[in-house]
Request: fold
Amino acid sequence: MNETKEHILRTSLKLFLQMSYKDVTMKEIVEKTGLSKGAFYHYFTSKEELYKEIVNLFFSSGAIDYTRFPGDSLKTFYNHYVEYMRITFHKMYELVGVSKDGKVSVNFFLIMFEAVGRFPEFLKFELEQHNKDIDAWVKVIKHAKETGEIKTVSSDEQIANLFLYCTDGVFIRFVNSDQNTSYETSLLNAFDSIYSNLKA
Amino acid sequence: MNETKEHILRTSLKLFLQMSYKDVTMKEIVEKTGLSKGAFYHYFTSKEELYKEIVNLFFSSGAIDYTRFPGDSLKTFYNHYVEYMRITFHKMYELVGVSKDGKVSVNFFLIMFEAVGRFPEFLKFELEQHNKDIDAWVKVIKHAKETGEIKTVSSDEQIANLFLYCTDGVFIRFVNSDQNTSYETSLLNAFDSIYSNLKA
DNA sequence: AATTTTATACCGAACGTTCGGTTTGTTGTT
DNA sequence: AACAACAAACCGAACGTTCGGTATAAAATT
Reply:
């Protein structure tokens, strides 16, 4: 892809991760990119088109590739998951940059919610990803039951959901907190809690 | 409070629950309320003032009153919690109204995130509420441990967090789904899963 | 090799529209 | 008469977008 276009995309993603669609103005986009209005409209037909491309980019980069996850034990799996999340978030934060106090003013759910609300066709991205998540977790949990790593009356799906609910829930807590405890620490703590109550 | 002012507040809350701050225009507010601009600015000095009042209203109505919750057993407590959520959500949905297909286009997190992002002073509302939540859950969990209702190596706070993470996580899943399964059903299912793995 | 043509990247003023907000005037109540 | 409650016309600023034009360099023609 063109270098300038990529520059616009990256700069705009920063903005759309911090503000709503309408909050981000064309003025700000061209100022932050260092380009002119004319240059922008040479690469994109509209602000809406740019937004859609960015959301696509965002959803793609958020998709988890489970193929390289260890599947031998649930414990190593969820530890790997937490580490994967740490790296993914770190990349995002690096892109956006954090404020001096270290607090993060970025909320991934915000862009996700607004994108789906504005263009419902993006919902299928989310559903697909969730199905992949469930499948990956169920597979590992099933295996952990068979090997005797864990023991529970709950179904594989129920346990999988529990872990995934925490992924979202912990993040919500993280954004709505003073952010003194890192996301990955809280997530690992939550996972450990679930796990220790499943231990055979 | 004045009837007309309440009418403006209620009508605007509907809008702010479905769209971002900037998406909601003064034009739409006066159209939906059936009033004129002059009438609106008779009751509010600005759109921002209205927004802040609405967010206050939203946070207040979202605050959970735990004083009437049963504290004798964890199971009855979380069942009561789910029922409480059901009623709270039902009230909100009733206020906003649902589309013909029954799907809900309302996202409570959206207004919460945007309000905190726009006016950081609202964050303390969230922190206060979360502390109250934790306290209430910890108390019940502690009691459940003492009576022998549950048995676990996890701390009271860890278990409390688990339940609360699910509250948020299940809701996120609900909005980002086809919404064929109700929120309270999914939440109860999640709570039951946690509980059954804590059972003595 | 020199010259013309064409394509790409970019600029910034200007456009029509919409924004939140104000002013002025009318109606109804006390 | 005074004031609250509203309506309607209006305001300047800001919005996303368009448009005429420039700079540069590669491609085509002579």
Residues 78 and 191 of chain B are 7 Å apart (CA to CA). Chain B touches chain A through 46 residues (CB under 8 Å). Residues 3-59 of chain B form a domain with the Arc Repressor Mutant, subunit A fold (CATH 1.10.10.60). DSSP finds nine helices and no strands in chain B.
